[in-house]
Amino acid sequence: MGKIVTKFGGSSLSDAGQFRKVRAIIEKDDRRCYVIPSAPGRRFDKDEKVTDLLYRTYRASKSGEDFHAVFQLIRERYMEIAQELKLGIDIAKHLDALEKEIERGVTEDYVASRGEYLNGLLLADYLGYTFLDPKDLVFFSEDGSFDSELTHTVMASTLKHVDRAVIPGFYGSIAGGEVKTFSRGGSDITGAIVARAAYAELYENWTDVSGFLMTDPRIVPEARPIRNITYSELRELSYMGAGVLHEDSVFPVHRAGIPTNIRNTNEPDARGTMITHGAVDEENPYVITGIAGRLGFSVLSVEKAMMNSEVGFGRRVLQAIEENGLSFEHMPTGIDTMCVVVSAAELEPVKAKVVKRIMELTSPDSLTIQDDMGIIATVGRGMVQNPGTAAKLFTALSREGVNVRMLAQGSSELSILVGVDEADFQRAIRAIYDEFVQD
Fold it and tell me: Model-level pTM?
């Protein structure tokens, strides 16, 4: 029987009612054997996440202030869940111990990690599953970088002997056992790590939305859900600012060839979005998969006659960029023009130095900088099989009077990038969506 690893976000485990939904989901499929919980999230608007309360507690303690009032809010959250679900675990004992540890001066990472730890204890008791502390399973090197191979070896070996377990997300340990956390959202990373180590047939990421949408709903309120997406498409969209999964939370399952299903705890029968290694058989009716974009770019345009025949010209331009601590995002070129797209915020403090250095190294005919540009990526594996996709996209932008300042398309034809004035950004996304996604 194949195994399913399930990760539940903070909104899925915010109170006792949500715990009941989670257990119903898990019991519906016997293959759901490893569960990764986040700390309790918001229960309503203006509520605070437990992790935020823990950070507040730590900062108050660190500065010598009285942290007990904030800690009491944390205590009430966990006690309320335990009492309403009539759990057998003495969670008060664990809360008392944590309060004393904070008084003694434990690290910020340790305090922040206790949100997942305590929620894991509650959930393991509620499900009747084994509790596994990721402090003993997830490892970081001394420099703070995640040690993926040691983690995989230890995690896989442990899971061989445990049929069903709750493994809190977000943290692990460095040498000596000191607790170390991932960045915020790290429970997604833990879930993917466990899925890889368990050789799962599916990784489910349960949250409060029914999968990904084709574009930002703040720009296109009626944006349709994405039913199927490949990891490659996901990477393109997330790089361009789409609010999807962090790349670190995708890599372990992508590497292992395990599909990921994004599901909604509050709508458990909804199909959600399936992320796969390769294309699925189901036809995509829209040709494109999604649209995403980011603002805040500047374009350095270096023009020089016969640039193409000058050996090392491009390298010298990039040398000037590198010497000033910048990385470039894109580099569209013509026969006599080279454009380098960089973050406007990063360029601004060193703009004069970059210009001077490029002039010294390349002696161009002209060098101009255009600010206030947004980049929009139209992504879809189906574009390569559909001639005229680019023409359709530019027709939509032209119809709306949007000026295209930059164009780039990868050799895989997975995405088309266009640069537009920031003032035209939302209108451009809307135009592209309307052109490709029709009722």
Answer: 0.86
